[in-house]
From TrEMBL:
The keyword Signal applies. It holds the Pfam family BOF. Residues 1-21 form the signal peptide. This is NirD/YgiW/YdeI family stress tolerance protein. PANTHER family: PROTEIN YGIW.
Amino acid sequence: MKTFKVILMTAGLATTGMVMANIPVNHAAIAPASITTVKQALTAKDNTPIKVQGQVVKSLGDEKYQFRDKTGSITVDVDDELWQGRPISPNTTVTLIGEVDIDYKPLKRVEIDVEQVQF
């Protein structure tokens, strides 16, 4: 009988570990945003945390989109799975959380690398 109790206890701990392992960790890893507009993003340093609200006005292909807020527009890089299968239009307001991504080759290009989409 004692053996049976030990097996149940071990099974319970294993189940608890599996549940905890399924908790999304990417939400906790996102730093607080210090940039809140496209205008600020265009002059920010690389990897600066950002949280902007506006509209995705068109697809540019290869998971890149044109994003617009009240201060301007910028290219954003959004992995397909972040859309969660929800359709959006140029009138849909979304919040994008991520970081500024600057590339200097061949010319300086500023984008937002999106880590989370809020509807």
